[in-house]
Every structure is written in C-alpha cells, then in structure tokens.
Amino acid sequence: MESTEPTAGENIAVLRKARDLSQARLAREMGITVSYLSKIEVGLRPATPPIVAAAAKALRVSTARIYGQPFAAPNEQGAHLENLRGAVRRYNLPKFDVPAPDQLAASLAKLAELRTGTHYSEMLRVLPRLLGEATATAYASDGDAVAWGQVADAYGCAYAVAHRLGQPDLAEMVVSRQAWASHQTWNPEAEAATAWNEAGTYQSAGDYGDGLAVVDRAIVQFESASRGEEMGPEKLVPLGSLHLRGVVLASRAKDKLATEAHATHAAELARRLNAPKDVLRHNLTFGAGNTVLYQLAAHIELGNPQEADDLATPLLRKPPAGLTPNRTGRLYIDTARARLALDNLSGAEEALKEAFRVAPQMAEVHPMAREVVRVLMVMHQRSRPELVAMAKRSGLA
Predict the structure, then answer these.
(1) Which of 66, 61, 68, 49 lies closest to 396 in space, CA to CA?
(2) For residue 23, with 0-12 CB atoms within 10 Å meaning exposed, 13-18 middle and 19 or more buried, which class applies?
(3) What is the 3-state secondary structure (H, E, C) of 199-234?
(4) Which residue, among 104, 112, 107, has the nearest Cα to 324 in the 3D structure?
(5) pTM of whole model > 0.90?
(6) What is the pLDDT of residues 130-153, one digit of tens each?
C-alpha cells in the first residue's frame, strides 16, 4: 500500500502550524504538556485515540482529518470504495435481480468470513452486488423479517470496511442504512447490532460521551425487549457486545468507574454464555476470549500499560480458542502499544510483526499500528529491515 499522507502525529503538527498556533497553546487546549505534544509531532510518542480526539477538538477539525487517508492516491481500492458508496446511496433502488435463496445465504456467509479474516479488499469487491441482491430479496419477500435481517447484516459488514479503511462519512451513511433495514425486522438483536455500529461512529469521531449514551440507551431497550425471555446466545451475544463497546468508550473517556462497570457486566454475560469459543451473531463476536481482549485494551487507554502487558503475556502463549484474525490482530496491535509505552521496543516490534502476519490488511491501515510503526522507525533510525518492510506496507516509508 502506498501513501502520500502523513501520520496522525505529523498531521497535528501540520494543522497546528497552518493555524499559527504555538505548541504551548495547543498543548494547553489539549490538556497535555508541551513536551508530550512535541514528542507526538516528531514521532517519539504515538498519537493515541484520546490524543487525536483532543487535538481535533482544539484544532476544530474532524478526527478523520487528523488520521489522514492511508491510500489517498487513486488505486483499485479507491475505485471499489466509490462503487460501495454508490450502492449505499441507492439503498432503496437495488439494480440486481433476486438470487436463489441458497446462493444469497452462501454469499452472505462468505462475506462474514471475509470480515473476520480482515480481507477488506475482497469485501469491497463483493459488497455492492450483495447489498443490492439482499435488498432486492427483502423487497420481494413481503416484509419477511429474516430477509430484512440479511440486509442489516450485510450493512454491518459494510460498516466494518468503511470504519477500518478510515471513511467516517461512509460509515455513518452505512449505519443509517443498517438502521433502516433493522427497523423492518422487529428483531431486537438486529437493532442492538446497529446500535453497536452507531456507537462506533461516535467512537471514531472522539465523541466518547455521546457514544456511551448510545450504548446505555441500546442496553436499556434491549433488556426491556428481552424481559422474560430465555437468555441464550441470541440474547447474550448482542448484549455482551454492547457492554464491550462501552468498555472502549468509557476507557477512552478516562472514566474508570464506567469502564469497570461495563467490563464486569461483559464478564458475567460471557460466563453465562459458557461457550468453548466466542460466538458470532449479526457480525458481533462475543465470549470470554473477546472480553479479555477488551479488558487489555482498556488498561492501555487508562494509562496502565504494565497491566495490559501482564494480561497479554499468557494470551500470546495460548490465545483464547476460536479467536478470528480480526481479533487476534487487534491483540497483537494492543500488545505492541503496551510494550511501546513500557519502552520495550523490540517487544513492540515483535508484536507488530505478528499483527502483520495474521491480519495484514488491518495492520496496514489501523491508526495505532501505523503510529507504533512510525515511533519505532524514529527510535531505531530506520536501521531494522523488518521494521522498514512494515513501514513500506503501511505507506510510511
């Protein structure tokens, strides 16, 4: 992947200078020290999500402007993104015929596999047609809830692509379409999956408080709709996933009490699920394995890298059963973040190499993977061939 765009830390410096702001003033508005801001700008410290959110607010730009676009130059991926935008835009004007039911089900199952495998380029190629075919099927179904649920699930996959490839405007449009489809299902699980993605758009924008409000409202609505029903996997997975989204949002907001509350609820729901491996429903993955990964990430966001590294060590030796590449890749990226914070540069590099091995397309564009690579490049003065190779794949060298 090639890039002409700087990283988040570099963009902060560019935007600060364009607005004729001193480091002292910007640091004051961001609530950090001048020394810390200086290190972020030159690549000695990574621009974490809360830092990016604070910089965006102070510079009066979106977080997307800070993160930049990892593939700004015209390429095949960009063309496929435009095709996806077109399909989402004409959401109620599907131009494809209704496929055979078995064919559509198999295509959607393959799409879900591509998502968990972080094969975003392949997803981009098939999503426009699948969205059209699923929608055509739903329109021809005379209001069948299952058919509309398939549309909602397809949009859930589209959100994953838009989010991971740094397209916040597209992600927000996709979520509105997913909400449109899930409302046709009268299915609380589909509604919860939509709320999970809706909260994700606030997370991407750095609006952690509003994202938590979306999560809390969705939890109350889901529990109310499910009252008196048996709490099987179809109920535990979306509810537990909402609490995991709450863990991320609360930890980035530096709200320790809310983080602990959501983490406790998630752990209890994972215990009740009692599954040998994490369960996937409506593109939401939940279980004991995913819960501990979110707890690890929360330690990093709350400024406890040693606790995060201690939690990661046994997971790296024996990963939880059934972890998909998108979750394993995130485990390695978060481990790299923790080790970098502990000045364990070689350990951070080793973790990143594993992330590029198991989830290459995610590692190439993930903002924190790119920031850790950037810092390691500065610290090592570009003297390590494998690190340089990762930087080139991320468009940083």
Answers:
(1) 68
(2) middle
(3) HHHHHHHCCHHHHHHHHHHHHHHHHHHCCCCCCCHH
(4) 112
(5) yes
(6) 999 999 999 999 999 999 999 999
